[in-house]
């Protein structure tokens, strides 16, 4: 039996580019037990197998985050978080959400998103250096998720603060002060959402929160605590990853100006550029799964309850799935990237996120054809998330 790998997931947090380390880990084997007790899955085929395995679930992951959380909103949210539910709760909640969060709802937002993207760019185009992340990549997804949920525009910034402050609840190495602030923020976040939910129940609108509160299947509805957890998850999941996908992808385009020119001149289809953003610079490096029984993955025997880290990022650059995986090549052949995961927990907002990124890219290419980088890039990995705090540009 080979010795466990010395790769430590935490090591990625301190470096700018995790891909060489992930490639080295994949070269050790697409499924590798780590000295830390995790099992890293880095091959595309093996990642798919793990994500679609009925033996693997997510509920025990919540237990890790619940440890030491006092009774209250943070605990309620974590106990009912959709991505940490297993059957029978997961299909029940997901079925109810799918009744309200429909493809029609996403399509209907299209013209409004296009107008909003253009309005955001109008004061920025040609007006000197600006931060593309703060001024644009954050703004559109945050406006969209607020519009979708029916959060009044005036309250959007407050909710973004709640969402940012509660993020450490899902952190890996969290400072005690941040954790206490996160617990307080979760109370405020839920109190806000509870009041909004009561308003919508009294006078339903055509927003998603109203639709979720009346969605019914087989005589069942979402419980209040489930609705609050879901609304908070949707608000946070709905804007942060979309912002990071767009920012990460734009940095790839702008760091080689010929790439940006190809977009501006229409040589690459916008949808294919966004698909390649997803493959090449996914904002979610990995997702976790727990096998409830001993399994075999890629020929490696894995014990029950050994936590799997499925590196979507590494799978997306597996040379067994993509030719020259470290080349950015929109329209390339190969399987769909795994950036939205796969199987039961496949991202609920995938089509919305893609639509948003496409709208943002199309509007930016039209308004700012001469866009260029105007400062250094500082990448970070925080837990599973990869991104930057700013993307300085001009043009
Ligand atoms: C580029 C943007 C996005 C990326 C890369 C992304 C990525 C992911 C991934 C990897 C998962 C699976 C987690 C797991 O399997 O453990 C997931 C689940 C989820 N995503 Fe997204 N997401 C994005 C945008 C969105 C948006 C816009 C929304 C909502 C409007 C959203 C809502 C959700 C929800 C609710 C789940 C949990 C689904 C479940 O457990 O059944 N995401 N997302």
3D structure, described in words:
- The chain is of the alpha+beta class and 395 residues long.
- The chain has a single domain, classed as Cytochrome p450 (Orthogonal Bundle), CATH 1.10.630.10.
- It contains 17 helices and 14 strands.
- It has helices at residues 19-28, 44-52, 59-66, 73-80, 89-100, 103-108, 110-121, 132-137, 139-149, 156-166, 176-202, 208-214, 224-255, 257-264, 270-280, 312-315, 350-367, and strands spanning 31-33, 39-41, 56-57, 130-131, 216-217, 220-221, 287-291, 295-297, 300-302, 308-310, 372-373, 379-382, 385-388, 392-394.
- The strands form five sheets. The chain has a five-stranded mixed β-sheet, with helices on both faces. A three-stranded antiparallel β-sheet has the order 4-14-11.
- Helix 15 (270-280) packs across helix 17.
- The longest helix is centred in the middle third of the chain and has 32 residues, at 224-255.
- The protein is globular and about 55 Å long.
- The chain starts with 18 loop residues before the first helix and ends with a strand.
- 42% of the residues are buried.
- The model has no long low-confidence stretch (mean pLDDT 95).
- Protoporphyrin IX containing FE binds next to helix 13 and helix 17.
- Protoporphyrin IX containing FE (HEM) binds next to helix 13 and helix 17.
């Amino acid at each position: 039996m080979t010795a466990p790998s010395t790769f430590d997931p935490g090591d990625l947090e301190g470096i700018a580019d995790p891909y060489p380390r992930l490639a080295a880990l994949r070269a050790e084997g697409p499924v590798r037990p780590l000295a830390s007790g995790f099992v890293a899955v880095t091959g595309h085929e093996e990642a798919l197998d793990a994500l679609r395995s009925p033996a693997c679930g997510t509920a025990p992951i919540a237990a890790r985050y619940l440890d030491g959380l006092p009774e209250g909103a943070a605990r309620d949210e974590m106990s009912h978080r959709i991505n940490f539910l297993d059957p029978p709760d997961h299909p029940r909640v997901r079925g109810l959400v799918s009744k309200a969060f429909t493809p029609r709802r996403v399509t209907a937002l299209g013209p409004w998103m296009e107008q909003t993207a253009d309005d955001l760019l109008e004061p920025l185009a040609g007006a000197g250096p600006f931060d593309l992340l703060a001024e644009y990549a954050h703004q559109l997804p945050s406006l969209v998720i607020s519009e979708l949920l029916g959060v009044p525009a005036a309250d959007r910034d407050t909710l973004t603060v709640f969402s940012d402050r509660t993020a450490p609840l899902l952190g890996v190495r969290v400072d005690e002060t941040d954790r206490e602030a996160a617990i307080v923020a979760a109370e405020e976040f839920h109190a806000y959402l509870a009041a909004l939910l009561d308003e919508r129940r009294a006078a339903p609108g055509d927003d998603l929160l109203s639709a979720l509160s009346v969605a019914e299947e087989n005589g069942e509805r979402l419980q209040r605590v489930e609705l609050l957890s879901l609304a908070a998850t949707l608000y946070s999941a709905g804007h942060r990853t979309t912002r990071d996908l767009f920012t990460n992808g734009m940095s790839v385009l702008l760091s080689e100006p010929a790439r940006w020119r190809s977009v501006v001149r229409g040589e690459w289809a916008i949808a294919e550029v966004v698909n390649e953003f997803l493959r090449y610079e996914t904002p979610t490096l990995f997702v976790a799964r727990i096998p409830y029984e001993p399994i075999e993955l890629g020929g490696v025997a894995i014990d029950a309850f050994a936590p799997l880290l499925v590196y979507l990022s590494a799978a997306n650059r597996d040379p067994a799935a993509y030719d020259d995986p470290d080349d950015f090549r929109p329209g390339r052949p190969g399987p769909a990237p795994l950036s939205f995961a796969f199987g039961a927990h496949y991202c609920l907002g995938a089509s919305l996120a893609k639509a948003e990124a496409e709208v943002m890219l199309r509007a930016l290419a039209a308004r700012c054809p001469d866009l260029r980088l105007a400062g250094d890039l500082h990448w970070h990995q925080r837990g599973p998330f990869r991104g930057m705090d700013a993307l300085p540009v001009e043009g």
